[in-house]
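Changelog entry: the VCBS repeat-containing protein record was regenerated in this release. Current contents:
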Amino acid sequence: MTPKDEIVLLIDAEDYMQNGVYAYDIDDNGIMILIDKSIGFGSASDWKGLAVGNLDGDGADEIIAHRNFDGDYKVFKLKESNGVKFLDNIGIESFPVLQR
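Regenerated structure tokens:
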């Protein structure tokens, strides 16, 4: 079985129920299928950045999203349990200085 491509989006919206991190699978036809999302961070989040990479060397990428409102860097990992993929909120690092 060929591994599927995945994409991560960071949405900075005024609607707090749309505001946050979204992970999608890309199927063989190029169709995006939502895996999971982490939303509800508040309309004033002011997201400033998104990075994805294998930071801890375990072979799985971590997702880091910078929320300028409070200086937090939210850390997520895409995990799988019983064949179901989900975003796991694995930590927060805080640098409480606004980024420009």
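The longest strand covers residues 84-94.
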